Structures are given as C-alpha cells and as structure tokens.
Amino acid sequence: MDDRSGWRVVASSTMFFGFWGPLIGVVPYVWMVISVPFAYVLGGVPALVCGLLFGLWQWKTRRNDVGPWARAARGALCGLAGCAVFGLAISHAQPSLSLMSVLALHGVPAGAILGACRRTGRPVKHSSLVCLTPQHGSARHA
C-alpha cells in the first residue's frame, strides 16, 4: 500500500468512525430525544480519534484481510484509546476513573461494532475484472 492509498484508508476510517461512532454511543440514551444532538458534541472527538487510530493501525500493519473478530478487537482498543484521550483532555487537572469508565462504556462497544463493519479490502486485481466483449456479447475474464 503506497502513501496515498494509506492516507486514504486513514481518512475514510476517520470519517466513518466520526459519523457513526457517536450515533452508536448514544443508543442507551435514545429514549431521551434531547440527547441525540449532543452525541456529536460529547462523542465526536473520541470517535474521530478512534477512527484515526484504527485507520493508522490498518495502514501500518498492512493487514486489511483480517476477520471481523480481529477488526472488532482493534476497534474496541481504538475506542478505549479515543475515550481515554478525550477523558484526559476534559479532566486534565485531576483524572477521574469514573469519567473514564463512563466514556469507555460507550466508546468500546461503538469501536468494536464499527471495527467489525469496517473493511477496506484488498485492491482489485486486473485479472479478476469481468468485461463484456463485442463478440457475441459474452462475458469473459480480462
């Protein structure tokens, strides 16, 4: 994977986690409709950090073909790290274990779900493309 496609993986993972992460994290509070708009206020930064770490991990290890359980474990670890960074930034004077546990309660499952769903896949090889040829309209492998 070259640098350009590697950064594309990181950027797309960051956007994917940044969009869906807060929505999954707010699921326990969805019965309070007022909490849904605040999901991005409180969960946006941890989700973006989680997506950034997940994308970097995929790029640097060059392992895009791992199974969904391995991606879920990566996502959970990245979600934990994203919540820890956000929790330390909020309570930098005196870190609170209870704040970290509440953040992790929402970030780890969201990271695991999104990690399992996120698959960049392998690049498509030219030989696996199917094209229609002008002769008789039949499909053949290029």
Number of domains: 1
Cα shape: globular
| Terminal-residue CA separation | 23 Å
Number of strands: 2
Order of strands across the main sheet? 1-2
- Would you tell me the structural class of the helices and strands? mainly alpha
Helix content: 55-70%
User: Oligomeric state of the chains?
Assistant: single chain
Helix-strand pattern:
HHHHEE
Q: Stretches where pLDDT falls below 50 for ≥5 residues?
A: 122-142
Helical stretch count? 4
Strand content: under 5%
Task: Provide the gyration radius in Å.
Answer: 19 Å
Largest sheet: 2 strands, antiparallel
Name the average pLDDT: 79
Describe it.
The protein is mainly alpha-helical and 142 residues long. 64% of the residues lie in helices and 4% in strands. The chain is built from 4 helices and 2 strands; from the N terminus they run ααααββ. The chain has helices spanning 3-25, 38-61, 68-90, 97-117, and strands at residues 130-132, 139-141. A two-stranded antiparallel ribbon has the order 1-2. Helix 1 (3-25) crosses helix 4 and helix 3 (68-90) runs antiparallel to helix 4.
